[in-house]
Amino acid sequence: MGNSQSSETAAADPFATPNSTEPDLELITLYAVNCMRFVVNAAEDTFRLSDPTMREAEAFCSLAAHGTEIEAFTIRKLATQLVDEAGIAPVAHVCERLSVCQSPAKLRLDLRGRVVTSEAAKAVGAILLQNYSLAILDLSGIVIKPEALRVIASALLRNHVLTTLALKRTFVYFKAGVAIANLLRQNTTLTLLDLGYDGIDAKGAKAIATALTQNHVLATLNLRGNRVADEGAMALAEALRENCGLEILDLRANMIGDKGASAIADALRHNHVLNVLRLGYDNIDDKGRKCLELAARTGLRIEFVELQPGCVGCCVCF
Fold first, then answer.
1. Pick the CATH number of 167-318 from 1.20.1440.60, 3.80.10.10, 2.30.42.10, 2.60.120.920
2. Which of these, 278, 315, 273, 269, lies nearest to 296 by C-alpha position?
3. At what angle do helices 176-186 and 202-212 cross, to 10 degrees?
């Protein structure tokens, strides 16, 4: 009876094959689908894991290590609000294994809205420093101590793999502009940066603008809901004259007036790369709007969102 039970357990476990040199990929896949909390999109070869254990992470990596074509992993923390070092360990394991087997899969770590401990921040920093296959990092709205956030920020300076970084509502209580400017000056891989609602003022916008004159890799920058005002908008306008990489810029809800709008409009006449500019919920009147309208060119979409009676927001494009 006991022997029968142990043999059933061995058969159900894809790794309990001591007499075999290669793991059973069919059993691993079955184990993954039945035991792991993730969704598989077969059409796009993408996988999403939710709070994986180390064993689940190992099963998952085996698929990539033995030839299964996977375009993207997403690891998301759902079960608990608190993310500690143990919670990051499976992520680090996946990153390392994918790097070792040279998998082209892109890994996304989603920690949105979680409470990140100092130990977890150090673990995330270690992943970034190793330049593993972590391509997308979403830290939007995380609760974290300033010193722990600085650990991640420092690691980002030496990372050359990450392509997407979301920090919406993350730096709201810290001085983000200068830190982000340092990152943009040194980074050569980030193509999308989300800094929405991060409390960035005119000084921070100036620092970011200066960095944009040296960074021509970043393609999408979201600064919505900050406080760049006319002074910051004018600095960003000067950056647009020199930058040849930015394609999408979101400046909605930034207290920008006609002066800032006019400066941006003038800069757009010298910029032939920007494809989408989003403005609105600001202090831009008819004069500023007219300048923007005249600056619009073929290939440039200026989206102007404004409040109107009877609707939450109306988008006017020109």
1. 3.80.10.10
2. 269
3. 0
Structure tokens at 51: 């709070």
The CA R_g of the chain, rounded to the nearest whole Å, is 23
Q: Would you state the structure tokens that stand for residue 291, as one six-digit string?
A: 């300048």
* Tokens found for residue 311: 């609707």
The CATH T-level fold of domain 8-110+118-127 is: Transcription Regulator spoIIAA (3.30.750)
| Spatial distance between the Cα atoms of 90 and 160, rounded to a whole number of angstroms | 22
Domain locations along the chain: 8-110+118-127, 167-318
d(CA 232, CA 227): 8
pLDDT tens figures, 164-219: 999 999 876 567 788 889 999 999 999 999 999 999 999 999 999 999 999 999 99
- Please tell me the pTM assigned to this model: 0.83
